[in-house]
């Protein structure tokens, strides 16, 4: 790690300030939109009292949910790997003495033998972070901006000045959903007054300029937000992160782009939780602790054929620590034992059924 001096400390502080510029921009834009819609459009321009009341009530509901989810996305701290994934002092000393290669990997294999990890590097090695000096849990990645390993990292978002990962991914999805509804609602209710602006049907006041720019801003943001929200809905349905969509996770048997997918229903529950009453609220309800995830895989040993007969080698694989003895967390493992939606887990039901049996044997 590079030594830090007064100069580098000042640069870090400057970067921290600059990182907040996109958040300040969104906040100012949101404040202006409130003034333009609630004051200039609803109170000044609308003449029908009933229309005013309905629009203001619906607007404030969407505005409140938008601000709430945006706040939670920004200020929810990303979760980092627990202490069990950090190397002990003796293991760090041993790792520093060993050269890069098989001996280095052997130290990491011994340290990881009881950890619930299944993913590997492209070369098949244990995923280790030199910066944080820990064994990376599945779906965990190091963020160069935060300079930390983030559990189930999706991406670092400049618009929230935070890493989007396991702890706030649900909040980020709700932020996209409510911001899209917010923009669509404004565009829909502002449209008739926008038309009046071009037909000279509005009085010549400053309100008409707010109405015009409000419609343009809402319409443009609606287009960009709809594509982004649709993309993340697809990611949730496939149980992928943005990073995994660009580079598929690597397991012991090789790359598998659908290795974490359990079917649409279970994929949704993994992000939003089991209690549907919390799905639309920016309250944390995701399953698990971000360190272990169920998978739908068979034939973890790459030397075994991709046939049901290959499952007979499961006992040998567990002896070689291909599957850790440590079970999944309870809130995640019940996704594997619940048989209700295994039929929808994949286009190849036999694969998921075999994967379920394979995990049951290794976690017994």
UniProtKB/TrEMBL annotation:
InterPro entries xref list: Palmitoyltrfase_DHHC, PFA4/ZDH16/20/ERF2-like
Bias (Polar residues): 299-321, 333-349
This enzyme's EC code(s): 2.3.1.225
Stretches of Basic and acidic residues bias are at 354-364
Q: Name one GO molecular function term.
A: protein-cysteine S-palmitoyltransferase activity
Where exactly are the transmembrane stretches of this chain?
17-37, 49-71, 171-189, 209-231
Similarity comment: Belongs to the DHHC palmitoyltransferase family.
Please quote what the entry notes about the protein's domains: The DHHC domain is required for palmitoyltransferase activity.
- Please give the PANTHER family that the UniProt record associates with this protein: PALMITOYLTRANSFERASE ZDHHC16
Identify this protein by name: Palmitoyltransferase
Per the UniProt record, the source organism is: Macaca mulatta
């Amino acid at each position: 790690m590079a030594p830090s001096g007064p100069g580098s400390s000042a640069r870090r502080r400057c970067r921290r300030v600059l990182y907040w510029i996109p958040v300040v921009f969104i906040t100012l834009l949101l404040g202006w939109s409130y003034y333009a819609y609630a004051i200039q459009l609803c109170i000044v321009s609308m003449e029908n009292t009933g229309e005013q009341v309905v629009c203001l009530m619906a607007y404030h509901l969407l505005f409140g949910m938008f601000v709430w989810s945006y706040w939670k996305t920004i200020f929810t701290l990303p979760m980092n790997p627990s202490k069990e994934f950090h190397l002990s002092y003796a293991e760090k000393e041993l790792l520093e003495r060993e050269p890069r290669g098989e001996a280095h990997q052997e130290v990491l294999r011994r340290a990881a033998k009881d950890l619930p990890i299944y993913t590997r590097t492209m070369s098949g090695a244990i995923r280790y972070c030199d910066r944080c000096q820990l064994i990376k849990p599945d779906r965990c990645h190091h963020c160069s901006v935060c300079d930390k390993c983030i559990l189930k990292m999706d991406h670092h978002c400049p618009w929230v000045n935070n890493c989007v990962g396991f702890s706030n991914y649900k909040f980020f999805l709700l932020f996209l959903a409510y911001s899209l509804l917010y923009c669509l609602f404004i565009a829909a209710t502002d449209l008739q007054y926008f038309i009046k602006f071009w037909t000279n049907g509005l009085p010549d006041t400053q309100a008409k300029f707010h109405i015009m720019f409000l419609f343009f801003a809402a319409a443009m943001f609606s287009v960009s937000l709809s594509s982004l929200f649709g993309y993340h809905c697809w990611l949730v349905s496939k149980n992928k992160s943005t990073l995994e969509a660009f580079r598929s996770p690597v397991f012991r048997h090789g790359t598998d782009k659908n290795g974490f997918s359990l079917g649409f229903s279970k994929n949704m529950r993994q992000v939003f939780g089991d209690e549907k009453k919390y799905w639309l609220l920016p309250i944390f309800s995701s399953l698990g602790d971000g360190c272990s995830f169920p998978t739908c895989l068979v034939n973890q040993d790459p030397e075994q054929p991709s046939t049901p007969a290959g499952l007979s080698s499961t006992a040998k694989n567990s002896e070689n620590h291909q599957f850790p003895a440590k079970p999944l967390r309870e809130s995640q493992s019940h996704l594997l034992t619940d048989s209700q939606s295994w039929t929808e887990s994949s286009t190849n039901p036999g694969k998921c059924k075999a994967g379920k049996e394979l995990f049951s044997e290794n976690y017994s």
